[in-house]
Amino acid sequence: MMGNQHAYKIDTAQGRFYAVCDSAIGYQSKVEAMTIVNEKGLIEKVIITKQGETPVFFERLTDQKYFDGFQGLAIKEPIYLGGAYGYSGYLGSIKTNNYIDGVTGSTVSSHAVAEAVNKGNSYLSGQFFNTQWANPYDLFQLSWKDMAMIAMFLIAFASAFIKKLVKIRLAFLLVSVVVLGFLVNQFVTGSLLLSAITLQIPRITNLKWYVLMAGSLGFIILLGKNLYCAWICPFGAVQEILNKAAGFKSLNISQKTIKILRLVAPTILWVALLLGTLLGDYGTLDYQPFGALFLFKSVWLMWLMLPIFLFMSLFISRFYCKFFCPVGFIYNLLNRWRNEEVRIWKQRLDRLKRKKKEEQETWSSHS
User: 70, 88, 122, 153: which could form a disulfide with 205 (CB 3.0–4.6 Å)?
Assistant: First the structure.
């Protein structure tokens, strides 16, 4: 081990090899990778030593032999990532054979692995091969996807002040389905919230993460409104659009049944957290239908539940959101806490103002 870097030099009968460990933040966890390099400076193997990504998406990397693609690539120059427009390290029009193609539908995890490998390679290249290069994964890239997300969050923010924007809300929800759902593939999930809570925070080069998390939580903190669920969430938008398009009469559900159904989201969330803690894998939080609908990839249970959620939304607007969504439950809870705290502080300030006014009046009457 050399310095603070987890790097090793190994002499064997087959020659000298180097190994380096480094990490990067993926979709919801830190992805740690070990890269084994031969004495010519070519990668022999990439091994993932630790990760907590959603299993169904990370397995794609193995299934599509993503890790095998690193073999033979040189560490004396950066390894770029193909098919990852808008991400740092994107190949784009760069002329080089030293690249690997990302896995469609698992781009964030693909990027995290490539970033971790490049960080380790940069160290080995400088230490043992007398070659220095600028890491493209450190460079910020602003894409149309980032700008589209920022624009959507700004419009939602403006809706709190410009009431006329409510008239375009349904059209805005449709845009959210297309842009955030199918094109950008960005939405708040339970596992994403957990990654933020546990400080598994990516670098600013992953601007989408910051727009999504800072934007959705910012609505609550600054405005006291859960505008993410109401205006931006693509799955909520799908349900509401289906409900309005169908025009069916809303199902009559008793208040007793509603109270019971509202216990479902916190119960499932608690069970998922408990299982995740026991198993050491918080992929249990990914019981949401986003992946099935927008990425066409999910666990079998979500494929079973998705048509049920969509069918029920024909009769109950945002059926999943109201009774099953962990993000909606957490955000609404945070929103209530925020507004209650603001109300309490306003009362305290009012009391202080009244007390100060009374004291001033008392002094005035004595003077």
Answer: 88
* In the chain, where the domains are located: 6-138, 144-345
Buried b (16+ CB within 10 A) or exposed e, 276-290: beeeebbbbbbbbbb
β-strands 15-25, 30-38: how paired? antiparallel
Enumerate residues 6+ apart whose C-beta is below 8 A from 142. 207
Structure tokens at 100: 């690997």
| DSSP character at residue 89 | T
Task: Give CA–CA dist 204/141, Å, rounded.
Answer: 10
Over the stretch 224-271, which tens digit does the pLDDT of each residue have? 999 999 999 999 999 999 999 999 988 888 889 999 999 999 998 898
For 167-194, letters b (16+ CB in 10 Å) and e give eebeebbebbbebbbeebbbbbbbbbbb
Q: What span, in angstroms and rounded, lies between the C-alpha atoms of 68 and 46?
A: 8
Neighbours of 303 (CB within 10 A): 14
250 in Cβ contact with 185 (< 8 Å) = no
Are 32 and 48 in contact by the 8 Å Cβ rule? The answer is yes
Q: Which amino acid is at 330?
A: I
At 275 the pLDDT is 81
Rounded Cα distance between 46 and 114, Å, is 10
Answer whether 112's CB lies under 8 Å from 26's CB.
Answer: yes
What tens digit of pLDDT does each residue of 114-130 get?
Answer: 999 999 999 999 999 99
Integer CA distances (angstroms), 189 to 110, 180, 326, in order: 19, 13, 8
